[in-house]
Amino acid sequence: MELLPRSPGEFGSARYWDRFFRQRGQRPFEWYGAFPDLCPVLHKYVRPRDKVLVVGCGNSELSEQMYDMGMCEDIVNIDISDAVIRQMQERSGSTRPKMSYLLMDMLQMDFPDAHFQVVLDKGTLDALLTDEEEPTIAKVDQMFAEISRVLQVGGRYLCVSLAQAHVLKKAVEHFSQEGWVVRIHQVASSEEKQQFVLPVFVYVMTKFRKIPGSAPQILEICPEEQDKPMRMENTERLVAAVKDRQHYALLCSQINKTPCREQVSLDLCDKESGKPRYTLHVVDSPSVKPSRDNHFAIFIIPQGRETEWLFGTEEGRRQLAASAGFGRLLTVALHREQHYEGMGGIQAELSGKVMELAPPGLPARQQVPFLSVGGDIGVRTVRHCDTSPLSGEYVVEDVKGDDSFYFRRLIFLRNRNVVQSEARLLAPTPLQGQKKRRKDKKKPSLAEPPGAIDKSYLCCEHHKAMVAGLCLLGGPDALPGELAVLVVGLGGGSLPLFVHDYFSQARVAVVEIDPSMLEVATHWFGFSQDDRMQVHVSDGLDYVAKLAAEAQYDTVMFDVDSKDLTVGMSCPPPAFVEKPFLQKVKSILKPEGVFVLNLVCRDARLKESVLATLRDVFPLLYARRIEGEVNEILFCQPSPEGRRDPAELGARAQALEGALRRPGRPWDSSYVLADMLQAVHIL
After folding, report:
1. Which residue would you say has higher pLDDT here, 91 or 47?
2. N or C: which end of the chain has fewer CB within 10 A?
3. Could you tell me which residues belong to the region Disordered (predicted)?
């Protein structure tokens, strides 16, 4: 039996609805949810003494249930279908004497002005506004005009809708421009089998007298999980907020039915500020054999560790899920702008929401475990935040690592999942004569002054590889002695500081385009200048171009990020690897020198182009991939005569490390230069 119209326009036809209800018979047709779902919202806006008009009533039981539940009795139902009006008069006429059903077109109603306190519309606007053609818009404008006419000032137009973008935008713009208060409620569905995947919304338009001039619009949304409305700045933000909830419902519907082939990511935002509070990744492990207790788990990533490979990459999260042994693992990253009340508070806050992302086949009333590293949520303290004209917003924060050490990090908020610079903190040293803390006293926290920067420790693996590349310098038997080093890109300063401190005869020139970064490095990362370390605040492109075209540097190091996030290469900026500029870099290198480049490129074609250009300029090119990261360190030499086999590189690395490990000078025992060069290969 065909109940759907041949074209969307038939939704406005009385003939179509007569045929529809004759074919359907006495069975109620409930557009967009049943009374139990709508009742909590309707109770807020319909009072027992209100006179209520239901437009496009159909044969829905909504009016009857409102009457029977005592919500209100003075209800007038209208519809353009004679068949359904006669059907409903027969069904309710004798049992509900104060409720009436009238054959009437809502575009031309016979009621006097200001006759009702409430106009209720369940799906009628959606059925009428099937497109944005001029005749359709004219009908909708007439519908809104009639609703406005028959409503009293202070009355409410309650429109139950699926909130398609064009429908929502039309309704919100029309009534807000008329000076009405607009509030959107998301309806919480209690049915196990919903008729629609997308959520149902109720537009609440409260009539006010239009004030001449530009009165502020009041636009609000009430998500299903809270009663307190959230104020929206404009129509676009309100429509976007509804769209976000529709996407979330669609996502939940999809992942509740089938396992995720790809990892799904979404943000849960703070109710007050609207800023992201949690970032969730849904990770399914098809290899895990399901049992009653391993369907689903939640993993809270400790604060400050969301950038680590295990938590911050797809492959890392995949390994985490497999090792945890759950069919679906939901990882949760915490945001630095937010405050959290420990693991218990997070569990209480998330327990209802995460169950909406449960996998198919999860047993009823199954307890879902919350997991973390060491059972806590980690420690993060923001030490400094500011805005640079060149780098944008940034923060300096201290975080606890996976051992007893604390680390200081520089994060550019335009790319908040990338650690720009990192340094390990030394444990605070008790003052002489200071008594030890009693065991029952509170342990020191990051709220106390931290220790100094550990300048002997290179946190970044790519920095370790860049320093190890200095083994390529010098003749067959020589090791670096007096060095002239140019570093482009300061960051926190750990790379030039290490070269300065451990190569005692090195003279280091650093070029940094952003003066704010020099302040950050000096104030927060223990960086300082002296007669062997000088910083030049300049564009690296200009600085290299102005140098005399004569060999003067033993090594040039590029560790400079790109400000343009639209390019598939985040380090260095594309201009730094163009052939004319690379030829200038080659011209300032000594014949046995080495150009060291930190390359971070996710675009395979762009990367191959960069490598081809480097090979054109430098006859000898080594590469060293950084495991678990996108970084690749390239060692470029201006002469092919400096080529060395792996055995020679290993021997030179051991000799150099021995020279750097001097008595009384701290050395990170995990930093083995020969290991850093094992994976080096010639391109």
Report:
1. 47
2. N
3. 429-449
